[in-house]
Specification:
The structure is a homodimer.
Chain A (H helix, E strand, L loop, with lengths): L2 H7 L13 H5 L3 H16 L4 H17 L1 H17 L4 H7 L3 H16 L7 E6 L5 E8 L2 E6 L4 H12 L3 E5 L5 H17 L7 E3 L5 H8 L7 E5 L2 H10 L12 E5 L5 H13 L8 E7 L3 H14 L3 E4 L1 H10 L3 E3 L2 H5 L6 E7 L2 H11 L4 E5 L3 H10 L4 E6 L16 E3 L7 E3 L5 E12 L3
Parallel strand pairs in A: 3-4, 3-6, 4-5, 7-8, 7-12, 8-11, 9-10, 9-11, 12-13
Antiparallel strand pairs in A: 1-2, 2-16, 14-15
Helix pairs in contact in A: 1-4, 4-7, 4-9, 5-9, 7-8, 12-13, 13-14
């Protein structure tokens, strides 16, 4: 059967029969709620589809991105021109900018998603119960996923591709600085999805550029199944505080590296410096280094030299200040703000601690729960650190930079969850699903 | 090492070093927040403990419940006397009442929990990455679990036992009608936990009987990791609307049975009647039956006779009304309120539908997403129903009453989730955990 016929065959609930889509509710709809309601209906059509029609739509998206690159670049050029006029920083303009090569890379990423295993329909557990009932727990799509994100237009396509692959409808709420680019991209995505016989409303941009439209999205409980804010701490806090829709917090990474008394100091210098300087703008870069006092005299001068050479400013405690003075390196005085800060830039907070437990206590107080690392040759110290630190990822003798869906072998990533419910750490396709129990019997009654 | 020594050895963060427990925050605490803060500290101590000290504490609880039964019954007798004076219904008084046998059964249930597999430390997935890093995803406790529940004092012990078994601290917020019973039970639990060397604050009653104390609990984000309301739809809606703490919705069951045109009608009568009448007060009992019109003439008279004999009032559509008139059985006229209602009593909504898709459309509009069943001999119909119905459990030729942690072989159940995030359907011990990634290398750097 063709994907279109398959989709048509599985179309059951007319909008007016779905509780979420009653005429009375629809009449009162704002543009945001109307969009969410269309997404709900599209999700109902997507959920029962097998893999092939979803993959067909994704391949159509990849082809369409390449075929319509001029249209996409023209819209993007307008966003870039406006950003330049507004005096936006060069690094943000760079993130915003699309080129033919970048669009080709985005299309290639979509094809990579097609190749990933289908999470939908996976049997998570199953057994035959003592009474003969067959029990299966099966992965199903979440339904409608809302993504709130900032600058980069590639997220628009990445998020839509991951949601489609996992059978979900997606509501995209990008930043106003990328509005023209996102509008052009979503038009391409919707045409490709519809051309493949799936509902175009599986991919929608949330209308309106005001804060009010985000607020409406956050209150659309019953229409939206989960909201994933991707961005700075302030955005995430706003969503968490105001949303009645369930939220998955992502991406705020105040990550720590603790250098134990039995660490290999050569490796420690290399790990700390690369974890900070290789790509400081990402959430898994290190923001604070904690050094056991037994190795401080040997390590601090070397770390200060290497960090300075890498262009990193150290915000240190008294011990680091003294080491800086001795080495002729300027060390800023660390305050509570530094311990709490996710710099995302060439700054590093630094302290000397009396022992492992003090490092753990510091991490418990200040960490955002993303990733912490211990560097040590001591197995007991490694075990204790892993046991006591409650973060999404705990590294032993490895850089914090490895917390990443691609590095973990998940093939793709919708974000890195720093919360404990539903998903924790890098979120791949399975984290975009729920499950349902399917129980099959021969007329079994209970009692 | 003794459990007490083990616990002491793993005690690291002094309260003042934990971010959640800074003196500034503590100074502003209300009684509810102070309780939550103590729970947070207890959770930090519990999390790294292996199985043995947790099981030891649970066995101590079971013994203490038996040893101190007189004290528990005396407190319970006061609650029961007050409830009788207030004119509470006999069925609620019965739920509230403890007897020596019931306390013994509660203690026995705690021993059953001891015997269950430990969810903490289970490796959910693991691999060696291409670069040689060892990746493990390991179950860890959620932290602090808040339970808001009604009448029955056995929930106090059940919930505490499941939370302790899974390494969590628990905040218990029962109903004021069971306040004396709960206070006595929690005193017994805390003494037993402390006697086993674990922090007594792992089990606490939320102080205050006002709604304000529930409201404070719902806003204690950062101190409480998850709230699980167990009770009626109104309670759950209030918590969902007002909580900044993540919530798991449980237990509202507007369950449907659809009798397909190819169902075995003898089995259909037996399944529908027992699913309604065997124990109508539970969430997995059936509330609406939908009958394919091809079998309506044959089935409706039989179902009406059997339901009437079982003391069930049918609230039916026109077809059911006509069948009732022909059979001399009173059928109430069903309204939208009936389709939406979770009766939890001897009432059943009933409709005749033209086909399977109409049954699915009815379920999509009215179901609470708990459990729906199809009775059919037709494999294609069964597959279509399973595919199109999006509820926590979908039954094929089996009663809705099987959606239950005990029936599913989970050994215990903290509730039945009707939401899609984190847990869906019966929640056993694994659903009371989160995970963390543990990544081990040899000084791996990235970039």
């Amino acid at each position: 059967m063709s994907p279109a016929a398959e989709s048509a065959q599985l179309r059951v609930a007319a909008p007016e029969t779905d509780r979420a889509a009653t005429p009375a509710a629809a009449a009162a709809d704002s543009p945001v709620l109307a969009t969410a309601r269309r997404a709900r209906i599209a999700a109902t059509e997507l959920a029962p589809l097998p893999r092939t029609p979803r993959d067909t739509a994704l391949l159509a998206i990849a082809d369409a991105l390449e075929a319509r690159v001029d249209e996409i670049l023209a819209a993007n050029a307008e966003d870039v021109a406006r950003a330049r006029e507004a005096g936006t920083s060069a690094s943000i303009v760079d993130r915003l900018t699309l080129t033919p090569e970048r669009v080709a890379a985005i299309a290639s990423d979509v094809r990579d998603v097609v190749a990933l295993p289908d999470p939908v329909g996976e049997v998570v557990r199953g057994s035959t119960l003592p009474n003969g009932l067959d029990l299966r727990q099966v992965r199903v799509p979440l339904g409608v996923v809302g993504i709130i994100y900032e600058a980069r237009p590639n997220v628009t396509v990445d998020a839509a591709a991951l949601c489609l692959k996992s059978g979900n409808a997606v509501l995209l709420r990008g930043s106003s600085s990328a509005h023209r680019s996102n509008t052009a991209l979503v038009a391409v995505l919707r045409d490709a999805v519809a051309g493949a016989g799936l509902p175009a409303d599986a991919v929608q941009l949330v209308p309106g550029e005001s804060r009010e439209s985000v607020h409406e999205l956050m209150r659309a409980r019953g229409l939206v199944d989960v909201l994933i804010p991707r961005g700075g701490a302030a955005l995430i806090r706003t969503v968490v505080e105001n949303s009645t829709v369930p939220v998955i917090e992502t991406g705020v990474g105040n990550c720590h590296i603790y250098v134990d008394e039995r660490a290999d100091l050569d490796r420690a210098v290399e790990i700390v410096v690369t974890a900070k300087a290789e790509r400081p703008s990402v959430c898994n870069s290190v923001e604070t280094v904690l050094v056991h006092r037994a190795v401080a005299d040997a390590l601090l001068p070397r770390l200060l030299a290497a960090l300075t050479e890498a262009g990193v400013t150290v915000h240190g405690d008294a011990a680091w200040g003294a080491a800086g003075a001795a080495a002729g390196v300027a060390v800023a005085e660390a305050t509570d703000e530094d311990w709490a800060e996710e710099y995302l830039g060439p700054h590093l907070a630094a302290a000397v601690v009396p022992d492992l437990d003090a490092a753990v206590a510091h991490i418990r107080r200040w960490s955002s729960g993303h990733t912490e690392a211990i560097l040590t040759a001591d197995t007991a110290a490694a075990r204790r650190f892993v046991s006591l630190v409650d973060s999404a990822a705990v590294m032993v003798n490895a850089s914090t930079r490895f917390t990443d869906g691609g590095q973990f072998g998940f093939g793709a990533e919708i974000g890195i969850s720093t919360q404990k419910l539903h998903a924790r750490g890098p979120m791949g396709l399975p984290e975009l699903t729920s499950t349902k129990y399917v129980v099959t019997g021969d007329g079994h009654t209970r009692g």
